[in-house]
Amino acid sequence: MRKILTLAMVTVLIGFATRQNLKAAEHFDQTAKSFTIAVLPDTQFYCDTRLKLSAKWGNGDLRRYFFAQTEWVRDNQQRLNISFLVHEGDIVQADAPEEWAIAKEAMSVLDGKVRYCMCLGNHDMGFEKSDNKYGGNIGVNRTTHFNTYFPREKFAKRREFGGTFDPDRHDNSWYHFEAAGLKFIIVALEYHPRDEVLDWANRIVAEHPDHRAIVVTHAYLKGDKTRNTNKLKLKGNNGEQMWQKFVSKHRNMFMVLCGHFGGEAVLTSTGDHDNQVHQILSNYQGLNNGGESWLRYMVFQPEANQIGIYTYNPALDKFKNGPSSRFDLDYPMAPPLTAPGITQPGAANAVKKEAESPAGDDQKAVPEE
What CA–CA distances, in Å, run from 102 to 46, 63, 253? Predict the structure, then answer.
Protein backbone atom coordinates (compact mmCIF):
# COMPACT_ATOMS: atom_id res chain seq x y z
CA MET A 1 0.00 0.00 0.00
CA ARG A 2 2.84 2.38 0.93
CA LYS A 3 4.56 1.61 -2.36
CA ILE A 4 1.36 2.45 -4.30
CA LEU A 5 0.95 5.74 -2.40
CA THR A 6 4.60 6.64 -2.99
CA LEU A 7 4.31 5.97 -6.72
CA ALA A 8 1.16 8.09 -6.80
CA MET A 9 3.05 10.94 -5.11
CA VAL A 10 5.82 10.68 -7.69
CA THR A 11 3.25 10.75 -10.50
CA VAL A 12 1.65 13.87 -9.02
CA LEU A 13 5.06 15.52 -8.65
CA ILE A 14 6.07 14.77 -12.21
CA GLY A 15 2.70 15.99 -13.47
CA PHE A 16 3.06 19.17 -11.44
CA ALA A 17 6.59 19.64 -12.78
CA THR A 18 5.37 19.23 -16.33
CA ARG A 19 2.64 21.83 -15.90
CA GLN A 20 5.02 24.25 -14.16
CA ASN A 21 7.69 23.79 -16.81
CA LEU A 22 5.16 24.35 -19.60
CA LYS A 23 4.05 27.57 -17.92
CA ALA A 24 7.68 28.65 -17.46
CA ALA A 25 8.50 27.82 -21.07
CA GLU A 26 5.44 29.72 -22.31
CA HIS A 27 6.38 32.77 -20.22
CA PHE A 28 9.98 32.51 -21.40
CA ASP A 29 8.91 32.40 -25.07
CA GLN A 30 6.91 35.58 -24.50
CA THR A 31 9.71 37.47 -22.74
CA ALA A 32 12.94 36.04 -24.19
CA LYS A 33 13.66 38.91 -26.55
CA SER A 34 17.37 39.72 -26.67
CA PHE A 35 18.56 42.82 -24.84
CA THR A 36 21.79 44.76 -24.49
CA ILE A 37 24.02 46.22 -21.81
CA ALA A 38 26.39 48.95 -23.05
CA VAL A 39 29.81 49.44 -21.48
CA LEU A 40 31.90 52.62 -21.46
CA PRO A 41 35.58 52.01 -20.70
CA ASP A 42 37.96 54.72 -19.40
CA THR A 43 36.98 58.11 -20.82
CA GLN A 44 39.67 60.10 -19.00
CA PHE A 45 41.33 61.54 -22.11
CA TYR A 46 37.98 62.92 -23.28
CA CYS A 47 37.83 64.98 -20.05
CA ASP A 48 41.40 66.22 -19.74
CA THR A 49 41.52 69.93 -18.96
CA ARG A 50 43.78 70.01 -15.88
CA LEU A 51 46.87 68.06 -17.01
CA LYS A 52 46.20 68.15 -20.77
CA LEU A 53 47.93 64.81 -21.32
CA SER A 54 45.81 64.29 -24.44
CA ALA A 55 47.88 67.00 -26.16
CA LYS A 56 50.34 64.26 -27.20
CA TRP A 57 47.98 63.32 -30.04
CA GLY A 58 47.87 66.89 -31.33
CA ASN A 59 44.13 66.82 -32.01
CA GLY A 60 42.91 69.31 -29.44
CA ASP A 61 40.05 68.77 -27.03
CA LEU A 62 38.76 65.20 -27.29
CA ARG A 63 35.40 65.49 -25.55
CA ARG A 64 33.68 64.87 -28.88
CA TYR A 65 34.44 61.17 -28.47
CA PHE A 66 32.62 60.99 -25.13
CA PHE A 67 29.58 62.58 -26.77
CA ALA A 68 29.87 60.19 -29.74
CA GLN A 69 29.59 57.28 -27.31
CA THR A 70 26.57 58.40 -25.33
CA GLU A 71 24.73 59.80 -28.35
CA TRP A 72 25.20 56.50 -30.19
CA VAL A 73 23.86 54.53 -27.21
CA ARG A 74 20.86 56.85 -26.95
CA ASP A 75 20.14 56.69 -30.68
CA ASN A 76 20.41 52.89 -30.79
CA GLN A 77 18.48 52.14 -27.62
CA GLN A 78 15.44 50.79 -29.43
CA ARG A 79 17.32 48.98 -32.20
CA LEU A 80 19.50 47.05 -29.74
CA ASN A 81 17.01 47.06 -26.87
CA ILE A 82 19.64 48.62 -24.59
CA SER A 83 18.47 48.00 -21.03
CA PHE A 84 21.38 49.54 -19.16
CA LEU A 85 24.75 51.25 -19.54
CA VAL A 86 27.68 51.00 -17.13
CA HIS A 87 30.80 53.14 -16.92
CA GLU A 88 33.95 51.32 -15.76
CA GLY A 89 35.62 54.33 -14.11
CA ASP A 90 38.36 56.84 -14.86
CA ILE A 91 35.53 59.01 -16.04
CA VAL A 92 37.81 62.08 -15.95
CA GLN A 93 41.55 62.66 -15.99
CA ALA A 94 42.38 64.47 -12.75
CA ASP A 95 39.21 65.21 -10.73
CA ALA A 96 38.93 68.81 -11.94
CA PRO A 97 35.51 70.53 -11.81
CA GLU A 98 35.69 71.50 -15.48
CA GLU A 99 36.41 67.84 -16.35
CA TRP A 100 33.39 66.69 -14.40
CA ALA A 101 31.30 69.29 -16.21
CA ILE A 102 32.23 67.61 -19.51
CA ALA A 103 31.36 64.19 -18.10
CA LYS A 104 28.04 65.43 -16.76
CA GLU A 105 27.07 66.92 -20.11
CA ALA A 106 28.04 63.74 -21.99
CA MET A 107 26.27 61.36 -19.60
CA SER A 108 23.17 63.55 -19.37
CA VAL A 109 22.49 62.66 -23.00
CA LEU A 110 21.21 59.37 -21.56
CA ASP A 111 18.88 60.87 -18.94
CA GLY A 112 15.35 59.64 -19.48
CA LYS A 113 16.53 57.46 -22.39
CA VAL A 114 18.89 54.78 -21.07
CA ARG A 115 19.45 53.70 -17.46
CA TYR A 116 23.05 53.94 -16.31
CA CYS A 117 25.45 53.74 -13.39
CA MET A 118 29.10 54.65 -12.88
CA CYS A 119 32.01 53.55 -10.72
CA LEU A 120 35.03 55.61 -9.66
CA GLY A 121 38.55 55.04 -10.94
CA ASN A 122 41.84 56.27 -9.52
CA HIS A 123 41.80 59.28 -11.87
CA ASP A 124 38.42 60.31 -10.47
CA MET A 125 39.69 60.92 -6.95
CA GLY A 126 42.46 62.27 -4.77
CA PHE A 127 44.30 64.72 -7.06
CA GLU A 128 47.29 66.67 -5.72
CA LYS A 129 49.65 68.99 -7.56
CA SER A 130 53.19 67.79 -8.10
CA ASP A 131 56.34 68.77 -9.96
CA ASN A 132 56.49 65.38 -11.67
CA LYS A 133 56.31 65.05 -15.44
CA TYR A 134 52.50 64.89 -15.33
CA GLY A 135 52.01 67.92 -13.12
CA GLY A 136 50.17 66.03 -10.42
CA ASN A 137 49.33 62.75 -8.69
CA ILE A 138 45.98 61.02 -8.73
CA GLY A 139 44.29 58.54 -6.41
CA VAL A 140 46.17 59.64 -3.31
CA ASN A 141 42.91 59.66 -1.29
CA ARG A 142 39.16 59.26 -1.83
CA THR A 143 38.12 62.90 -2.10
CA THR A 144 36.28 63.57 -5.35
CA HIS A 145 34.06 66.08 -7.14
CA PHE A 146 31.99 63.19 -8.54
CA ASN A 147 29.21 63.70 -6.01
CA THR A 148 28.78 67.34 -7.00
CA TYR A 149 28.14 66.49 -10.64
CA PHE A 150 26.45 63.09 -10.17
CA PRO A 151 24.71 63.55 -6.81
CA ARG A 152 23.00 60.72 -5.06
CA GLU A 153 19.75 62.65 -4.78
CA LYS A 154 19.44 62.89 -8.58
CA PHE A 155 19.73 59.14 -9.07
CA ALA A 156 17.74 58.18 -5.97
CA LYS A 157 14.61 59.41 -7.76
CA ARG A 158 15.01 56.81 -10.47
CA ARG A 159 13.10 53.56 -10.49
CA GLU A 160 16.25 51.48 -11.04
CA PHE A 161 18.13 53.00 -8.10
CA GLY A 162 18.73 50.57 -5.25
CA GLY A 163 20.90 52.41 -2.75
CA THR A 164 24.42 53.44 -1.76
CA PHE A 165 27.02 52.47 0.79
CA ASP A 166 27.11 56.00 2.19
CA PRO A 167 23.64 57.58 2.50
CA ASP A 168 25.07 60.96 1.46
CA ARG A 169 27.38 59.88 -1.37
CA HIS A 170 27.10 58.15 -4.74
CA ASP A 171 30.59 56.58 -4.77
CA ASN A 172 29.38 52.99 -4.20
CA SER A 173 25.91 52.17 -5.47
CA TRP A 174 23.62 49.40 -6.59
CA TYR A 175 20.96 49.36 -9.28
CA HIS A 176 18.42 46.83 -10.53
CA PHE A 177 16.43 46.22 -13.68
CA GLU A 178 14.44 43.53 -15.44
CA ALA A 179 14.81 42.39 -19.05
CA ALA A 180 13.40 39.37 -20.90
CA GLY A 181 11.69 38.34 -17.68
CA LEU A 182 15.05 38.15 -15.88
CA LYS A 183 15.99 40.22 -12.84
CA PHE A 184 19.44 41.81 -12.58
CA ILE A 185 21.36 43.70 -9.93
CA ILE A 186 24.43 45.83 -10.72
CA VAL A 187 26.83 46.77 -7.92
CA ALA A 188 29.17 49.66 -8.80
CA LEU A 189 32.25 49.76 -6.55
CA GLU A 190 34.97 52.34 -5.99
CA TYR A 191 38.58 51.90 -7.08
CA HIS A 192 40.10 49.22 -4.83
CA PRO A 193 37.06 49.07 -2.54
CA ARG A 194 37.57 49.12 1.21
CA ASP A 195 36.67 46.15 3.43
CA GLU A 196 33.59 47.89 4.75
CA VAL A 197 32.41 48.53 1.19
CA LEU A 198 32.83 44.84 0.32
CA ASP A 199 30.88 43.90 3.46
CA TRP A 200 28.08 46.16 2.25
CA ALA A 201 28.24 44.70 -1.28
CA ASN A 202 28.11 41.15 0.12
CA ARG A 203 24.97 42.02 2.03
CA ILE A 204 23.27 43.65 -0.96
CA VAL A 205 23.88 40.68 -3.28
CA ALA A 206 22.89 38.17 -0.57
CA GLU A 207 19.61 40.03 -0.04
CA HIS A 208 18.70 39.60 -3.73
CA PRO A 209 19.15 35.87 -4.47
CA ASP A 210 16.56 36.05 -7.27
CA HIS A 211 18.60 38.68 -9.14
CA ARG A 212 21.51 37.91 -11.45
CA ALA A 213 24.48 39.89 -10.16
CA ILE A 214 26.99 42.00 -12.10
CA VAL A 215 29.87 43.91 -10.49
CA VAL A 216 31.33 47.03 -12.09
CA THR A 217 34.64 48.17 -10.63
CA HIS A 218 37.61 49.98 -12.09
CA ALA A 219 40.75 47.91 -11.46
CA TYR A 220 40.27 44.14 -11.27
CA LEU A 221 41.53 42.13 -14.25
CA LYS A 222 44.80 42.61 -16.18
CA GLY A 223 45.50 42.10 -19.84
CA ASP A 224 47.21 38.77 -19.12
CA LYS A 225 43.88 37.36 -17.86
CA THR A 226 44.86 37.41 -14.18
CA ARG A 227 43.27 39.38 -11.37
CA ASN A 228 45.55 42.14 -10.15
CA THR A 229 47.40 41.58 -6.88
CA ASN A 230 49.23 44.88 -6.45
CA LYS A 231 49.36 46.65 -3.11
CA LEU A 232 48.52 50.33 -2.86
CA LYS A 233 49.12 53.10 -0.39
CA LEU A 234 45.40 53.80 -0.71
CA LYS A 235 43.66 51.39 1.67
CA GLY A 236 41.50 48.92 -0.22
CA ASN A 237 41.25 45.58 -1.99
CA ASN A 238 42.81 44.56 -5.29
CA GLY A 239 41.17 42.26 -7.83
CA GLU A 240 42.23 38.99 -6.26
CA GLN A 241 41.09 40.14 -2.84
CA MET A 242 37.74 41.22 -4.29
CA TRP A 243 37.34 37.75 -5.79
CA GLN A 244 38.15 36.01 -2.50
CA LYS A 245 36.12 38.28 -0.22
CA PHE A 246 33.11 39.04 -2.41
CA VAL A 247 32.73 37.95 -6.03
CA SER A 248 33.29 34.21 -5.53
CA LYS A 249 30.88 33.90 -2.62
CA HIS A 250 27.51 34.33 -4.35
CA ARG A 251 25.56 31.78 -6.36
CA ASN A 252 23.86 34.49 -8.41
CA MET A 253 27.11 36.25 -9.40
CA PHE A 254 27.96 35.84 -13.08
CA MET A 255 29.93 38.86 -14.34
CA VAL A 256 32.56 41.47 -13.43
CA LEU A 257 33.26 44.42 -15.74
CA CYS A 258 36.41 46.52 -15.36
CA GLY A 259 38.90 48.86 -17.05
CA HIS A 260 42.12 50.55 -15.79
CA PHE A 261 44.58 48.12 -17.36
CA GLY A 262 45.03 48.62 -21.09
CA GLY A 263 43.59 46.22 -23.62
CA GLU A 264 41.08 43.39 -23.56
CA ALA A 265 40.85 40.14 -21.58
CA VAL A 266 38.35 37.60 -20.30
CA LEU A 267 38.76 35.26 -17.35
CA THR A 268 36.01 32.77 -16.48
CA SER A 269 36.31 31.38 -12.96
CA THR A 270 34.20 29.03 -10.87
CA GLY A 271 32.64 30.51 -7.76
CA ASP A 272 32.09 28.81 -4.42
CA HIS A 273 28.70 27.50 -5.62
CA ASP A 274 30.05 26.06 -8.90
CA ASN A 275 28.70 29.08 -10.79
CA GLN A 276 30.69 30.44 -13.72
CA VAL A 277 31.75 34.09 -13.37
CA HIS A 278 32.86 35.93 -16.51
CA GLN A 279 35.36 38.69 -15.65
CA ILE A 280 35.86 41.07 -18.56
CA LEU A 281 38.45 43.81 -19.12
CA SER A 282 38.07 46.51 -21.76
CA ASN A 283 40.11 49.72 -21.91
CA TYR A 284 41.13 51.61 -25.07
CA GLN A 285 42.71 54.76 -23.62
CA GLY A 286 46.11 53.81 -25.03
CA LEU A 287 44.84 53.88 -28.59
CA ASN A 288 44.84 56.93 -30.86
CA ASN A 289 43.09 59.98 -29.38
CA GLY A 290 42.68 58.28 -26.01
CA GLY A 291 40.38 55.60 -27.38
CA GLU A 292 38.62 57.59 -30.10
CA SER A 293 35.19 56.44 -28.81
CA TRP A 294 35.72 52.65 -28.73
CA LEU A 295 33.10 51.03 -26.50
CA ARG A 296 31.61 47.64 -25.74
CA TYR A 297 28.09 46.33 -25.90
CA MET A 298 26.85 42.94 -24.76
CA VAL A 299 23.82 41.32 -26.38
CA PHE A 300 22.05 38.86 -24.07
CA GLN A 301 20.33 36.11 -26.06
CA PRO A 302 18.17 34.13 -23.60
CA GLU A 303 16.98 31.51 -26.08
CA ALA A 304 20.58 30.66 -27.00
CA ASN A 305 21.91 30.99 -23.44
CA GLN A 306 24.66 33.21 -24.79
CA ILE A 307 25.99 36.74 -24.42
CA GLY A 308 27.47 38.25 -27.57
CA ILE A 309 30.32 40.70 -26.92
CA TYR A 310 30.87 43.45 -29.50
CA THR A 311 33.51 46.19 -29.67
CA TYR A 312 32.44 49.21 -31.68
CA ASN A 313 33.63 52.71 -32.52
CA PRO A 314 30.72 55.12 -33.13
CA ALA A 315 32.99 57.96 -34.30
CA LEU A 316 34.62 55.79 -36.97
CA ASP A 317 31.59 53.52 -37.46
CA LYS A 318 33.56 50.29 -37.37
CA PHE A 319 33.95 47.15 -35.27
CA LYS A 320 36.93 45.32 -33.85
CA ASN A 321 36.54 41.70 -34.93
CA GLY A 322 39.56 39.98 -33.42
CA PRO A 323 39.02 37.05 -31.02
CA SER A 324 39.42 39.25 -27.93
CA SER A 325 37.02 41.89 -29.30
CA ARG A 326 34.14 39.87 -30.76
CA PHE A 327 33.20 36.67 -28.92
CA ASP A 328 30.35 34.83 -27.25
CA LEU A 329 30.00 33.76 -23.63
CA ASP A 330 27.86 30.90 -22.41
CA TYR A 331 25.40 31.91 -19.72
CA PRO A 332 22.23 29.98 -18.75
CA MET A 333 19.12 32.13 -19.03
CA ALA A 334 16.43 29.63 -20.11
CA PRO A 335 14.27 28.38 -17.21
CA PRO A 336 15.47 25.10 -15.65
CA LEU A 337 13.22 22.07 -15.28
CA THR A 338 12.27 22.00 -11.61
CA ALA A 339 9.60 20.71 -9.27
CA PRO A 340 9.17 20.39 -5.50
CA GLY A 341 11.76 17.89 -4.30
CA ILE A 342 13.43 17.85 -7.74
CA THR A 343 16.20 20.41 -7.86
CA GLN A 344 18.92 18.92 -10.05
CA PRO A 345 19.34 16.78 -13.18
CA GLY A 346 18.49 13.16 -12.43
CA ALA A 347 16.65 13.97 -9.22
CA ALA A 348 13.34 12.79 -10.65
CA ASN A 349 14.87 9.39 -11.40
CA ALA A 350 16.28 9.28 -7.88
CA VAL A 351 12.81 9.89 -6.44
CA LYS A 352 11.33 7.19 -8.64
CA LYS A 353 14.05 4.73 -7.65
CA GLU A 354 13.38 5.40 -3.98
CA ALA A 355 9.68 4.79 -4.53
CA GLU A 356 10.39 1.41 -6.10
CA SER A 357 12.52 0.26 -3.16
CA PRO A 358 11.03 -1.11 0.09
CA ALA A 359 10.32 1.70 2.52
CA GLY A 360 10.87 1.22 6.24
CA ASP A 361 8.87 3.02 8.91
CA ASP A 362 11.53 5.76 9.24
CA GLN A 363 12.02 6.35 5.50
CA LYS A 364 10.45 9.18 3.50
CA ALA A 365 9.25 8.54 -0.04
CA VAL A 366 10.29 12.04 -1.14
CA PRO A 367 13.51 13.34 0.46
CA GLU A 368 13.23 16.71 2.13
CA GLU A 369 15.62 19.49 1.15
Answer: 8, 7, 33
Candidates 313, 290, 324, 297; CA nearest to 123 is 290
Pick from 91, 201, 65: which is nearest to 145 by CA? Answer: 91
Task: Say what the pTM is.
Answer: 0.84
Say yes or no: 93 and 127 in one domain: yes
How far apart CA 282 and CA 301 sit, in angstroms, is 21
Among left, alpha and beta (phi > 0; psi -120 to 50; other), residue 289 is left
Q: What is the pLDDT of residues 351-369, one digit of tens each?
A: 333 333 333 333 222 222 3
For the CA atoms of 308, 314, 320, 326, the dihedral, rounded to the nearest 10 degrees, stands at 0
* Residue 307 pLDDT exceeds 50: yes
The predicted structure's pLDDT at residue 32: 73
Q: Residue 227 contacts by C-beta under 8 Å, 6 or more apart in sequence?
A: 220, 221, 238, 239, 240, 242, 243, 267, 279
Query: Does residue 222 sit in the same domain as residue 264?
Result: yes
In a shared domain, residues 358 and 281: no
